[in-house]
Amino acid sequence: MPEIISSNNDDRKLPERIFVERLKLYYQSLKQSVLAVLVNSTILLGLLWNDIERSHLLGWYSFALIVTIYRIIVWWQFNRIEKSRYEERQWYLHMLIGSILSGLIWGGAGYFLFSDNIFYQALLAFIIAGMSAGGIINLSSFLESSLSFLVLVILPFLIRLLQEGSTEALQMGFMVFLYLLLISVSARRVHQTVLNGLTMKFMYQRAESKIKEQALYDELTQLPNRRLLKDRMLHALARAQRSNIKGALLFLDLDNFKRINDTLGHIFGDGLLQQVATRLNQHIRTGDTAARLGGDEFVVLLTDLSGSSAEIAQNVQLIADKIRQALEVPFKVQNHELHVTSSIGVSLFPDDSHSVDDLLKHADTAMYQAKNLGKNAVHFFLKDMQDSLNKRLELEKALHKAIKNEEFRLYFQPLVELNGTIFGGEALIRWFKDDEQMVPPDEFIPIAEETGLIYLIGDWVLNQTCHCMSEISKLNLPNDFKYLSMNVSPQEFNQKDFAIRIEQALKKNALSGRYLEIEVTENLLLDDVSGTVQKMEKLREMGISFSIDDFGTGYSSLAYLKKLPVDSLKIDRSFVQDVLSDNNDATIVKTILSMSHMLGLKVIAEGVENKDTWRFLEQHGCQFFQGYLIGKPMPFEEFMIKLKNGSVFEP
Ligand code: C2E
Ligand code: CA
Ligand code: CA
C-alpha cells in the first residue's frame, strides 16, 4: 500500500481508491506491453535464427508466447468484471505474476540467447535496455513489480557477461550494472510521480464534489437546501404536468424552537435541528425529499401521488399528521429531553399552482394559518387564506402610517360598583384608519404585537391615559373615582425599561401611581414568573395596581394566583355573556367568584349586557361591573361629562 495514507478519517477511503486506480493504470497499459513483447521476441527470433541453438531459441520463444497468452487472458477478464470488483486481491497477484513472468522472458533472453558474437551481445543489450525502460513506464504504478521486472531482465544478462570474462564483456557488464542502478532509481521516481498524480487527482475530485455538495446541501443537517429543493420541485412539477400524477409540499416550522435556542443555547438548537432532520428522513419514502430552508424551517416534497384530488388530500393529511406526531416524541440532546411541536402547511400541485415559488409561498401561508389556529397542527392552503394574508400585510403598512398620522383615539368604558357609581374606567384604543373607518383593536393589536409596533402604540396609550387621568383628577371628584386602567401586552411588559417608562409618564403628568391600574393577561406569566413578579412589585411600590384580564381563558392556576401581587381579576366576557344559558359558564363564574373572595381579590365582571346577568352576578357575590349595560366605550370628552355630572348607573 502507498505511503500517502493519511490518518484523517475523511481520507479513509482514499488509499483504496488510489489502489484501484493503480491497478487500472497497469491493466490499461498491458496491451502495449504485450504487443511489445510479441514484436520484440519475434524480431529476436528472426535475428538469432542462424546464430543460436534452435532448441534454446524455440524453447524461449514458446515460453514468451505462453506468458503472452496468459497476460492477454488476464487482461481480457479484468476488462469484463464490474468496477466494484477491481479491489479484489487476485488482480494484484495476476499483475505481479505477469510482471515477473515477462521479466523472466527478457532475463531468459539475456541468459539463454547469449552469443559470443559481440554484435549480438550489443543487440541483446539494446533490446534489454529498451524493454526495461518500457517496463518502468508500464509497471510504474507498482514499485514492487517494476523493480522485480528490472532485476529479472537485467541480472541474467549481467551474469552472462561476467561469465564470458573477456575485457569487452566485463566493460559492458560494468555499464549494464550502472544502467541497472540508474534505471532502478528512475523507476522509483516515476512511481512516486504516478502516485502523487493520482493523489492529487482524487483530492481535487473530492474538493470539487464537496463544493458541489455545499452548494446544494445544508451544512448542519446535510439535507438538501432551498436550491436543490427547488430543482427537485421543478422536476416533480414537470412530471405532474405530463402525467396524471400529483405531489404535495409540506412546509414545516417548529413551534417553540426559538425558545429552546434562546434559553439552552445554539449547541442544543443545532443538535435538535439535526435530529429533526434525521426523523424527517425516517418518515418519508425514498423518492420524497426532506429539505431545510434555514432556521427551523423544513420542507417535505412528496411526489408521485395518484388518485382523486380528495384521496390525495386525505393521504397527504395522514402523512403530515404522521410527521407531526413523530416530532412530538421527545428528543434527547446532550442528555436533555426536549419537547417540540410543529406546525405544517400544505400545498398541493399542480392543483394549487404550477409555479415553484408560489407553491412554497402557499405552503408557507398555510403553515402560518396552522400556527394561528393554535400550533401543533396541519393546515392546507386555501385561496381565501392568501387573501387574508394580503389584507394583513396591507394593514401592517397602514399601521405604520397610523402612528405618524395620529389616527388613534383613546376611548373609555366605565367600571361601576354594586351601587352604580363609577369607580374607574378602562382605556381602550380605537384606530380610525384614514380618519374614517374604525378598525377594531382585536384586528390590529396582534399585528402590532408581532411586528413590534406595539411598543410605540403602548407608549402612546400610556401617555394618553396618564394625561386623561390627570385631567380627571383636576375635577375634584369625591373619593369614589379610583383609577383608569390600561391594557398592556406581554411584549410591552417584558421590555427592560417598562417600569422606567411608566415612572416617566407619571412624572410628566404629575400623577400618582395609585391612579393607574395595569391589565395583564395570564399568558404574561408563562415565561419567567419570578422576573414578572419582581417587576410587578416594583411598579406596586409606585402605587400602581394590577388586574388579570380575560381571566379563565389562559393558563394560570390557583397556585399561580397566590404568588402574584395582583389586586383584581376580570372574568372574561365569554363566560359572563352565557352565564344564564350555559351551565358550565355559570359554574365557572361562580367558582371564580368564591375562589377570589377566599384569596382576597376583587372581581370585575366584564361584558355585562343585561340586568338578568347583573342580578345573577350580584347574587353570587360580584361587586364590580363593566359592560354595554352600563355604558359602551366612549370618547374621553363624553366620559368626562358623565363624571362631572356625577352620573350613577341604576341597576
Ligand atoms: P379587553 O381588554 O378584554 O377589553 C374589553 C373588550 O370588551 C373591549 O373591546 C370592549 O369594547 C368590549 N366590551 C365591553 N363591554 C362589552 C359588552 O357588554 N359586550 C361586548 N360584546 N363587548 C364588550 P375592544 O375595545 O374591541 O378591545 C378588544 C381588545 O383589544 C381588548 O380586550 C384588549 O385586549 C385589546 N386592547 C384594547 N385597547 C388596547 C390597548 O390600548 N393596548 C393593548 N395592548 N390592548 C388593547
Ligand atoms: Ca382589558
Ligand atoms: Ca378582558
What would you say this structure looks like, in words?
The protein has 651 residues and is of the alpha/beta class. The chain has three domains: 207 residues, no CATH class; 156 residues, Reverse transcriptase/Diguanylate cyclase domain (Alpha-Beta Plaits), CATH 3.30.70.270; 251 residues, TIM Barrel. It is 59% helix and 15% strand. The chain has 22 helices and 17 strands. The strands form three sheets. The chain has an eight-stranded mixed β-barrel with strand order 8-9-11-12-13-14-15-16, surrounded by five helices. A five-stranded mixed beta sheet has the order 2-3-1-6-7, sandwiched between helices. Strands 4-5 form a two-stranded antiparallel ribbon. Helix 1 runs parallel beside helix 3 and helix 12 packs across helix 13. The chain is rod-shaped and about 145 Å long. The termini are far apart.
Provide the fold topology.
Elements: H1 14-48, H2 54-80, H3 89-112, H4 118-138, H5 143-164, H6 167-216, H7 226-242, E1 246-254, H8 257-264, H9 266-282, E2 289-294, E3 297-305, H10 309-328, E4 331-333, E5 336-338, E6 342-349, H11 356-372, E7 378-380, H12 383-405, E8 408-417, E9 422-433, E10 437-439, H13 441-451, H14 454-473, E11 483-487, H15 490-493, H16 498-508, E12 516-521, H17 529-541, E13 545-551, H18 558-563, E14 568-571, H19 573-577, H20 583-599, E15 602-605, H21 611-619, E16 624-625, E17 634-635, H22 636-644
Parallel strand pairs: 6-7, 9-11, 11-12, 12-13, 13-14, 14-15, 15-16
Antiparallel strand pairs: 1-3, 1-6, 2-3, 4-5, 8-9, 8-16, 8-17, 9-10
Helix pairs in contact: 1-2, 1-3, 1-4, 1-6, 2-3, 3-4, 3-5, 4-5, 4-6, 5-6, 8-9, 12-13, 14-16
This protein binds ligand C2E and calcium ion (2 copies).
The site of one calcium ion has 5 residues, from β13.
